[in-house]
Design a protein that fits this description.
Blueprint (H helix, E strand, L loop, with lengths): L1 E3 L2 H9 L5 E6 L5 H13 L2 E6 L19 H10 L4 E3 L3 H4 L18 H4 L3 H16 L3 E5 L3 H14 L4 E5 L21 H4 L2 H14 L5 H13 L4 E9 L16 E9 L3 E8 L4
Parallel strand pairs: 1-4, 2-3, 2-5, 3-4, 5-6
Antiparallel strand pairs: 7-8, 8-9
Helix pairs in contact: 6-7, 9-10
Length: 282
């Protein structure tokens, strides 16, 4: 496994990879959700590349950039065991050199949900992904469905700019009790950890209603809110039933299209997100 830091080292290492390359962009502190993407990248491409970079441009001034969990040595050991070919672990100045002043600003799909609550977040995401795609030149890039809006933003970016990269969304990997795996789960206290299961319970309640024939989007949102309201440790940020591609909120869910049910909830200190696709019902 080749581990590089600078842009030039990355270019040289990338030139040494033959065939198709699958890229898994990460911010490190890897868990089984990341590793599921790495395994898929290995299976579907001639070589697998991973980036580890806590990207400052996607953090707001009140967010947890300094406190974001990091364990590079452990991450590299996991990636070596997984057979990764190339890892880029840049410093901030390697990604954003002195005088850097070019950013990629996504459109409407980035303005709602997380984008509305974290101004500038998706500009940071779109910019770092554009840099990665340019430097690594992958044939495919792999992202977790847990960050569903991020996936939608990146797919729009690829379509709009004509980038020759296939975007693959891997399924959400959950703990045995249903909690979606996330680096931020490490912030949960012993008391808050069981309370965090309210997110997946609310989503599954909406799915049951959907499977039972409910097509009114507000009724589906109300189902989730009712579950969340019963957990005193949970503070709801948003509950959404939206078009799966545009993320526009729906009044009625078209059974031929389905919807994305998503939510953001603060449980104790950490703010957690989760989602579930309400699959089309022909």
């Amino acid at each position: 496994m080749k581990v590089v830091t600078t842009r030039e080292e990355l270019r040289v290492a990338r030139a040494g990879l033959s065939g198709g390359v699958g890229l898994v962009p990460t911010m490190g502190f890897l868990h089984d959700g990341h590793l599921s993407l790495v395994r898929r990248a290995k299976q579907e491409n001639d070589a697998a590349a991973v980036s580890i970079f806590v990207n400052p441009t996607q953090f707001g001034p009140t967010e947890d950039l300094a406190a974001y969990p990091r364990d590079l040595d452990h991450d590299l050991a996991l990636l070596a065991d997984a057979g990764v070919d190339l890892v880029w672990t840049p410093r901030v100045e390697d990604v954003y050199p002195a005088g850097f002043d070019t950013y990629v600003t996504p459109g409407g799909v980035a303005d709602v949900l997380e984008g509305a609550r974290r101004p500038g977040h998706f500009r940071g995401v779109a910019t770092i992904i554009s840099i990665l795609f340019h430097l690594v030149a992958p044939q495919r890039a792999y992202f977790g469905q847990k960050d569903a809006q991020q996936v939608a933003v990146i797919r729009q970016l690829v379509r709009d700019l004509g980038l020759p990269v296939g975007i693959v969304a891997g399924p959400i990997i959950r703990e045995p009790d249903g909690l979606a795996m996330s680096s931020r789960n490490t912030y949960l206290s012993a008391e808050d950890r069981p309370a965090a299961l309210v997110l997946s319970r609310a989503l599954h309640a909406a799915e049951l209603a959907w499977d039972g024939g409910e097509r009114d989007a507000e009724a589906l949102r109300a189902t989730m809110r009712q579950i969340l309201a019963a957990e005193p440790r949970a503070t709801v940020d948003y509950v959404s039933v939206a078009h799966p591609d545009t993320l526009a909120e729906l009044a009625t869910v078209d059974p031929a299209v389905g919807a994305l049910a998503s939510l953001a909830v603060r449980v104790g200190t950490p703010r957690l997100i989760d989602n579930l696709v309400l699959a089309p019902r022909g």
